Amino acid sequence: MVNSYVLIQFMLVDELGNNEWTAFAHIITAVIGSGVLSLSWSVAQLGWIAGPFTLILFALVTLFNASLLSNCHHYLNPRNGDTIINRSYLQAVQNILGHISGVVCAFFIYLNIFKLGVVYTITSASSIRAIKQSNCYHEQGREAACEYRVESYMLLFGIINIIASQIPNFYSTQWLSIMATVMSFAYSLIGSGLGLVQTIGNGKIKGSIGGVATDKPIQKVWLVAQAIGDIAFAYPFPLIFLEVQNTLKSPPTTKVTMLKASRISVFTTTVFYLLCGGFGYAAFGNSTPGNILTGFGFYDPYWLIDLANACVFLHLVGGYQIFSQTLYGIVERWYAEKYPESELLKEFRILEIRMNPLRLCFRTSYVILTTALAIIFPYFNEAVAFAGSVTFWPLVIYFPVELYFVQKKIVPWSGKWVLLRIFTILCFFITLFAFVGSIQGIIAKRFG
Length: 448
Prior knowledge:
This protein has helices at about 5-10, 20-30, 40-70, 90-95, 100-140, 150-165, 175-200, 215-235, 240-245, 255-285, 300-340, 355-375, 380-405, 415-445; strands spanning about 75, 85, 350, 355. It has about 450 residues and is mainly α. The chain has a single domain (about 5-445), classed as Amino acid/polyamine transporter I (Up-down Bundle). Helix 5 packs antiparallel against helix 13 and helix 8 (about 215-235) crosses helix 14.
């Protein structure tokens, strides 16, 4: 999962002389998150060969697209010869590809923020329910009927975020960024560690070459599609590439430093993902749960499972706010510029927090909408697959290739142009496959 706005908090501290190691830290902090929880299930659907291969393939695609973006930090404007420094992904698209492409790119970026809010609500509610179930199983035994509905927990998450959303602006959320970062590492390490211990306890490695078998071939196809979408959700690091590159010092050139940091980061992330996904599948085989921390392959030690799920919940509260604050700021600045005399902008204070009617109404409505959608479609793996597939191709594949074409003045129908077009088309069909699979899964769960 790409927590690109966690990263910005670290980038505000620019006096330290950022090099490839600080860039590495930024990327690792931004990428490793709740997407790791579904990787064991994804490997289980794909099997011991296709699962790790797909993780490595997405890593290579991610690294390749990062190399394309490395050329876009500095752009020579052909109209006046000025050098433009693109400090963000969206800024690069607007400056190099033009206004219309910028509008389309902005739509997908904001859609990405919104869908993360929905996924975070689903995931956080599952984690609270898992804590309740863990304590119930510990007290009443593993055969007890410890079933709890998630709707009330989603409402709790929504209420917390309605309150937290009244934080005035993004720069007031530094403490949330730090908390979210620590929590994401904690539960990821706990999940992979539990998988390793369970595998050792079993005395064998479970799973098969072909992955989980199904009664109907078409069902296997849809599960494979969802698994690909889940993996895509965990990988689109190029979205934060230019933001990180903008923090680097020269010499050497920021491009050289960033490419080195990218290779180290993608390698580290991929190893981490392979361990998380592999240990979970090795521990549970065909019974691997959709969420490694809430599916109750693990029962003991119950306190450690509770701790891990509490870390997930706290991380997602912070992550929800960090992403949403960016969108809040864009909408509210637009409104203030368009209607500077509006009564909705008049501020008042509640418990020393500056508020205004626009902030109170818009942010509350936004949280209610994401919560409502999560309640209607509370399906973790399908939601993660949808979230991964719906924006992966335009943001991670299409725009970086188009930026490279313009920046490097690639001639149409040249060898490089044809190869990159083939690459773009292949990735489009893979992403479309994952998208259709996620939609089928949501429909099947909702109406099946």
